[in-house]
Amino acid sequence: MEFLEHRRTLVEDRLEAVIEGVEPSELADEVGHVALSGGKRVRPIVTMLACEAAGGDAEDAVDFGVGIELVHNASLVVDDVIDQSEVRRGVDSAWTAFGYGPAIIASDGLLGEAFELFSSEPRAMQAATEAMIELGEGEATELVAIPSNEDEYMQLARRKTGALFRAAAELGAIAADADPFAVEAFGEYAERVGVAFQIRDDVLDATADADELGKPTGQDAEMGRPSVVQVTQLTTEEANAKAREEADRALAALERTDAADTEAGEYLRDLAEFVVVRER
C-alpha cells in the first residue's frame, strides 16, 4: 500500500497548499472544512495512476488530480444542501457548519481553485468543462426529470458520477501527453468504474449501517432520489451484478491502453475490482 499512500500524500499536501492560498480567511476555513475533512481521494489517485500508466510521472498529474477532487467536493456541498444531509465524512456538512449561503460560496470557491489548476493546459480545461456540463445535467435530472427505468438510471449515473471519473483519468493521460486514442480509452475505463461505484453506493445507502458508512443511510428512499434500488426492479444482488458488468467493461477499455505491464495499471485494475465489493 506504500505505492498508493505516497500518491495520496502528494494529493493531501497539494490540497493543503491550495487551501492555504485561499482568501479571505473565512473562505479558506469553509473550503478547508470541505476539502480537508477526509475522503478516499479516489479521483485524484486515478488521475495520477492514469498518468503513470500512460508513461508519465505521478508528480506531473498532481495539480490536475487535486483540481478534479475540488470539483468533486464542490458537488458534494450542493448535494448536501439539496438532500439536507447534516453529516459528510463523519463531520458536519458545510451547510450545517456554516449555513446555506457560506456553503454555496464555499462550493464556488472550490470550483474557482479547481479551474485555476486546469488553466495551464487547454485539453485539461476542455475535459474538466465537459465533465462539469455532464454533472450539471445529471444534477438537474435528479431534480426535474427523475428516471423511471434502468436505462434512464444508467444515463443519470454516467452523468452524475461517471463524468468526473472519466475526467479524472483523461486528465492523467493528458498530463502524460498521451495520444487521443489513449485518452479516450482511459476515460471510458474510469467512466465505467464511476458507474459501478455509483451503483454500489446506492446499494450501500439501502443496506449499510450509517456509523460504518460514515454518512446517513436511507437518504435515497427518504428524499425520493433515483437510486438503482428505487428506480429499477433490480434486487440488491442484481444491482451488484450490474456493477460487476460495468467493472468488466472498464477492464476491457483499460486493455486497449499500454497500461498492462505497468504497476500503475495493476492498481487501476484493482480499483475496478474493488468498487464492486467495497463496504464504505
From TrEMBL:
One of its GO terms (biological process) is isoprenoid biosynthetic process. Pfam families: polyprenyl_synt (PF00348). This is Farnesyl-diphosphate synthase. Keywords: Isoprene biosynthesis, Magnesium, Metal-binding, Transferase. The keyword Transferase applies. GO terms for molecular function: metal ion binding; prenyltransferase activity. PANTHER family: FARNESYL DIPHOSPHATE SYNTHASE. Its cofactor is Mg(2+). The keyword Signal does not apply. Belongs to the FPP/GGPP synthase family. InterPro entries: Isoprenoid_synthase_dom_sf, Polyprenyl_synt, Polyprenyl_synt_CS.
